[in-house]
Structure formats: C-alpha cells, structure tokens
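Sequence only, no structure available. Ideas?
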Amino acid sequence: MIHPIVAYGDAVLKKVSEDIARESVDVKKLAEDMFETMYNARGVGLAAPQIGLNLRMFIADATPLNDDDDDDDDDDENVDDKSKEEKKEIIDFKKVFINPTIEEEWGDEWAYEEGCLSIPGVRGDVYRPANLRIHYFDENWVEHTEDYDGFPARIIQHEYDHIEGVLFVEHLSSLKRQLLKKKLTNISKGNTDAKYRMKFPLKK
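Reply:
I predicted one. Tokens follow.
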C-alpha cells in the first residue's frame, strides 16, 4: 500500500521515534508498504515518521542512484559521477533497519547535496562522517552490527536523523535556513509540485 508522505512542518517529523516491540507491528508488511511508497516517490530511503508513524524503523534501496536519467527527481541522493565499481556497492545496498542504533561514526566529514521526500524541491550540502557502525534488527528480527561507508553510510545517517526527529535542513548554515524559510512554509501549506501523494500540516 502506498502511503502519503508527511511534509515538512508536521510534528511527527520532530519527534524522537519509539522502539518497536516484537509482534506489536507486522514489520514485514510495514517494510513492503514503505518500499512501495518510496519507489512511487523515486526515493532511496524512507523512515517511518515520513508516513506518520512514530516508530524506529527505516528502509533503504540505493538502486535508483545508478539510474543516470533521474537528475530531476527528489531522491535523497544522486551519484551520476560514481564509477562502475562504486556503483556495484550501491546496487547491492537494500536494507530494512528496525530499532537501529548508530554506535560509532568516524572518518573525514564530506559534503554532499542532500534532498528529502518530505521536503520536495529543496537541496543543500550536508557534511557527514565517512564511516559508521550500526546495530539493528532486520524484518525477520535477526540482529546485526555492521560497518558502512560512502553513500550507504550517508543514506543511513540521513534516515537515522529522521527517527531522531532531525531533518537535513537543520544541518545547513543559519543563512541557508533563513533563505529557505519561505519555501519551507510553502511546502507545509501544500505549495509544491511533488509528483507523489503527500500530507501537508498547514494545508487548508
């Protein structure tokens, strides 16, 4: 089932999400719905708060990053300049993260122009550490602790921010945020040309 994506300004996007107790949620069905919603919006990552659920869960599938024809969409990431070898790493990255905890981040911080399905049409350079270690459960409740770097790490960091109540625009400079203020308010009111269903907190 495709859910509407919650737009900037909705309170659920600012809450720290709650852990999911086993058997309290059909996480396999929820993951299926989230992937369907994400693919419909041509994204590469989606967190539960973005469909209005205050749950510590997010998904990622970086395959669209390898499509050179997606320059004009609202994907969280775009890596047209990646080599074939680097793209293989991205193609293979499809995951469900339940009750995740980033245990460590390290490496040089690097900038990339991020976007967000909840904030269509807005992008900005965000600096993040190159490496991370994350502990999580998958959709089968199998426990994992894994290290990631590069673009998979960035997608995880972006989506992890969502379940911590943080949006990528909060990483931008105060000047950039001030320049975006009117545009962000318009998005909250439904003034956007997003090509997917959205839920707007201030739409009358």
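Residues 174-188 form the longest helix (15 residues).
Hope that gets you unstuck.
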